[in-house]
Amino acid sequence: MRRGASHSQRPRVGADTKRPLGLIVLAVVFVLMAALAVASLLMALLQQGSMSSEAGGAKDLAGNTVVLDDGQQPTKQQIAAMKPQQESGMRFTVPSVGLDVGMQSLSVVDGVIVPPGFRDAYLVRNLGVGLDQAKDGTVFVVMHSVQGGLAPGNYLTNVEQGSIKLAKGALIQVGERSYQVTGGELLPKSSLQDESRVWQNTPGRLVVITCLERVSGRSLQNAVIYATLQS
Q: Among 16-20, 37-41, 71-75, 221-225, which stretch is predicted with the lowest mean pLDDT?
């Protein structure tokens, strides 16, 4: 049986390919699998864009229209079930790299998470803890990166060098909560779900996950950034 995430379960993270109009965008895919005898979960984090036949469509931070490949478009029912909600007045900022974007929150429903856009950072409501309980557990934030475009995750990585931009000690502001980066690592999408250190529900911890894009070709790694609560 599939259900919403519990604090001790480990997601699997992968990727799907998508195309903006005139450029290729790579998806971030999260799949949560069973980790305890009494808890079983499958969660997929899929990019939400619009097909090329539709007018308008989801935009990245540079105004590029993002389009998923045929067959990758999440349904309206899936999106509605996640209840994505703009967190009014809440920002996700990393001053050292110039990142300052809005925040939304959404939930794991029937094993699936579908972020609806490419311009915000997303709090996962039912994985880890909420910001109001940040002292007691891990806050998980996910965001998209795009190949050839500009999404929040692009600020955190260096595609040409294949590395994470954030240095130890860098400050991350999540709403009213301040965190200090303690480290980061690049992990293969195929094995991320097995990395227990990522999914531990540790008091006062922040985990930020995005894709590490490549100059060309499919994204093969996730950038995982760890930070500790300061206030």
A: 37-41
Other CB atoms within a 10 A radius of the CB of residue 223 amount to 25
CA dihedral sign of residues 191, 149, 62, 48:
negative
What distance separates the 2 farthest-apart alpha carbons in the chain? 47
Sort residue 14 into left (φ over 0), alpha (ψ -120 to 50) or beta: beta
Cross-strand bridge partners of residue 99:
94
In the block, residue with structure tokens 């500790």: 228
Helices (H) and strands (E) in the chain, counts: 2, 16
Burial of 140 from C-beta contacts in 10 A (0-12 / 13-18 / 19+): buried
Other CB atoms within 10 Å distance of the CB of residue 4: 17
CB 142 within 8 A of CB 127: no
Q: 39 or 221, which is more confident?
A: 221
For 4, the token pair is 């919403």
Q: What would the mean pLDDT of 42-69 be, rounded to a whole number? A: 56
